[in-house]
Design a protein that fits this description.
One of its GO terms (cellular component) is nucleus. The chain has 17 helices and 31 strands. It is an alpha+beta fold. The protein has three domains: 193 residues, C8orf32 fold (Roll), CATH 3.10.620.30; 56 residues, Single Sheet (N-terminal domain of TfIIb), CATH 2.20.25; 225 residues, Jelly Rolls (Sandwich). Helix 3 packs across helix 8 and helix 7 packs across helix 8.
């Protein structure tokens, strides 16, 4: 006799009693579910279906269910495997998840608990408990390492300097070391600093930088009973989230910060791209929690839809064997998290956000995380003056025909119906234009320039307003050089839209900065910056929207006077009275006129730079 079983099918928080015949195939079961829920079989995904562990059964395979078994149905209408995912991205995400699983060890958790002070373990209030843990971990337990002390017993000097790196020894490899930093003291003793990834080893060394800190702190948080995530920021930082009172709370052990997710973008000045969260039973893209500029971030490794589908696929595999109650709890947390995301667009940077405090000042500055750009922006907010007006025009670009007659185009620059296209939306392009007639920038007390621009969109690298006394054919290098680097006898006001940390030490990827090396070839490196600032509320300049800029140069009465440059963007003063005596810098004692124009460039990333209006006068 062909007996049937009754299951509880749960879909959208509703339960359906479904009778399943003993000889029912997976294909028949899908059709049966469709008749009850209207969920197309193509998009049906089942959790806790007995023989669907880590895979979907074949259509003709008989399903095995128990009487009164609870089965959860998900409707993944958009679910599909990504067309393409780059191996490096795939390996990074899946490798980090494997690391997360390693914390699920009773032995390791007990080792951590044995070191936690009793008052922390006894605290019942979860928020207070986490705050106590952060304070103890940062101020008593773990130590930050800028450079290690000399390992020579007789020397032991705390001052060592980096001299490179080395391969790990067999012993170091046993503690999951992939790189060893090498340091040398003044007495020429060599000290090795292995970057340990073994959390068990870190319980004895108790030192390192953000990677070691977050690694060890994750274990302590889990050991104390917190539902914990390990957070990976692709722009080189790691921290945690803990689930408290129905919310995922940001915590950073390096800074001892609690529930301040915008601190990295709004305080440190980081230009985020991807931020992923890893927990025992899921992987999530949580970038939107840490950025108010999500549509303008440099997220080009994979399409957004493919990333969503890829993470859905991974999470389906991870959870396929979970008990029903545990799975339902996870999905409820996801529902609450999705609801919270709906309010993210209303957030702004709070006034108390600061730069990074962990690490030496030199190290923080080299990484562009000291928050100086935000301090500078706060100063600019206090120093706003009226936008200048051009009373006596010298040059005005008001037609395509005038542009063709009056401008010298260089490189990949072209004139289109939309304006002057400094670079097209293509990789590795550099272009610019110069007004053919030199302009006197000294005799009338300086000059005022007004121009409108549009940058399409969210790529690299940026553009520059340039004054030069070199040649009408001058053009600098592309990429991070923005088309002006290499032009002799010049001063440039750059509008930089990409954070080039290695070659330029850019403070961030959305700033305006004044650069000159006087008579030498100009450089976009920030050691040659006279001053820089950010647009109001750090609004991206490469957002595909037309922006209006004013530049005012005010001359002094002599070589040693305080000639200054002011810059406004979209009615907000970004740079206030930056000292720059152009007459002296460019050696304009006899000839007070220069070539004036604009340059731009792209590199591995691309965007179009378009000038839609340009006028100059005083």
């Amino acid at each position: 006799m062909n007996q049937s079983k009754t299951i509880n099918l749960i879909y959208n928080d509703k339960e359906y009693l479904v009778e399943v015949e003993n000889e029912c195939t997976y294909e028949d079961f899908q059709i049966l579910v469709f008749s009850v829920t209207d969920v197309d079989p193509t998009f049906q995904r089942f959790y806790y279906l007995s023989n669907s562990k880590l895979r979907d059964p074949s259509p003709t395979e008989k399903i095995i269910v128990l009487n009164n078994q609870k089965i959860l149905l998900s409707n993944l209408k958009s679910f599909k495997l990504p067309i393409k995912i780059e191996n490096g991205l795939k390996n990074k995400i899946e490798g980090m998840y494997r690391n997360m699983i390693s914390y699920n060890s009773d032995r390791l958790q007990q080792m951590a608990l044995d070191q936690v002070p009793l008052e922390i373990k006894k605290e019942k209030d979860l928020k207070r408990k986490m705050l106590m843990l952060l304070d103890w971990f940062k101020n008593e337990y773990f130590t930050w390492t800028n450079s290690p002390e000399c390992s020579d017993i007789k020397c032991g000097t705390p001052s060592t300097s980096s001299v490179g790196s080395d391969r790990p020894t067999f012993e170091e490899q046993s503690h999951q070391v992939s790189i060893v930093e090498v340091y040398r003291c003044a007495s020429n003793h060599v000290t090795r600093f292995p970057r340990y990834n073994s959390v068990e080893k870190l319980l004895s060394t108790k030192c390192g930088r953000c990677g070691e800190w977050a690694n060890a702190f994750t274990l302590f948080s889990i050991a104390l009973g917190f539902t914990t995530r390990y957070i990976l920021d692709f722009t080189d930082h790691v921290w945690n989230e803990v689930y408290i009172d129905g919310r995922w709370i940001h915590v950073d052990s390096c800074e001892a910060t609690y529930d301040s997710p915008l601190t990295y973008e709004g305080g440190w000045g980081k230009q985020l791209s991807y931020v992923f969260a890893f927990e025992f039973n899921g992987i999530y893209d949580v970038t939107s929690r840490y950025s108010i500029k999500l549509p303008h971030l440099n997220r080009y490794l994979i399409s957004e839809s493919d990333l969503t589908n890829y993470l859905n696929h991974l999470n389906h595999q991870i959870r396929s064997t979970l008990p029903f109650d545990e799975l339902r709890s996870i999905l409820n947390r996801e529902f609450l998290e999705d609801n919270e995301k709906q309010s993210y667009h209303q957030r702004t940077y709070s006034s108390d956000l600061t730069g990074r405090i962990s690490g030496s000042s030199e190290w923080r500055n080299n990484r562009g995380e000291s928050g100086n750009n935000n301090q500078q922006q706060q100063q600019q907010q206090q120093q706003q003056s009226e936008i200048p007006i051009i009373l006596k025009p010298i040059y005005s670009l008001d037609s395509i025909s005038k542009a063709r007659e009056s401008l010298k185009l260089v490189g990949n620059c072209d004139i289109t119906k939309n304006g002057i296209c400094l670079t097209p939306d293509e990789n590795d392009r550099v272009g610019g234009f110069w007004i053919k007639e030199r302009i006197d920038i000294i005799s009338n007390g300086g000059f005022i320039c007004k121009f409108k621009f549009l940058i399409k969109t969210n790529g690299a690298d940026g553009m520059a307003f340039v004054i030069q006394n070199d040649s009408i054919n001058s053009l600098g290098i592309g990429g991070c050089g923005l088309g002006y680097q290499g032009i002799r006898n010049s001063i440039a006001i750059e509008f930089d839209t990409y954070p080039t940390k290695d070659h330029c030490k850019d403070p961030d990827g959305n700033h305006i900065s004044i650069h000159t090396r006087s008579l030498e070839p100009n450089s976009s490196h920030h050691r040659f910056s006279l001053g820089y600032g950010n647009p109001k509320n750090n609004k991206p300049m490469n957002d595909g929207i037309e922006h209006e800029c004013f530049i005012k140069y005010s001359t002094s009465n002599g070589d040693d006077g305080d000639s200054t440059i002011d810059v406004w963007l979209d009615k907000y003063q970004v740079l206030y009275k930056i000292k720059a005596n152009i007459q002296k810098l460019l050696n304009l004692h006899e000839n007070k006129s220069c070539f004036i124009g604009m340059t731009a460039s792209t590199g591995g990333l691309k965007q179009a730079h378009i000038i839609s209006g340009f006028s100059i006068g005083y």
